[in-house]
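Support request, please re-run this one:
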Amino acid sequence: MSADDQPDEKSDQVVRGIDDLAEFNWALTKLSPRQRVILILRYADDLPEMDVAQILGCSVGTVKSTASRGMAQLRQLIDRNRRSDEIPPLAPTEWRRPC
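Re-run finished. Output below.
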C-alpha cells in the first residue's frame, strides 16, 4: 500500500474523535452524495484511492480532493454541532451506504 493510500492524519483524528454514531450519521447527511460515497468507500470500506476512483469512474485526484473537502466539512459540522445546543435530529441507526 502506497503512502497515497493511507488516510491522512487529520482525517484519522476526525474519525477517531466522533464518539456518537447519531452525530456522525447526522453530519454525513449534510454532505453531498458524492462526498458521502467517497468518504464511505475510502474510510469505512478502507479502499485505496485508486480503487475508489475506478469504482466511481473518476480520477484519483478527484477522489483525493473530494475526500479532503468532505472531511473538512465533517469537521466543521461536528464542531458547530458540539458548540450549539442542537441535538442531532436522527436517532442512532446503522451506518449504511447511500443508495
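The chain has one domain: 7-83. Confidence is low (pLDDT under 50) at residues 90-94.
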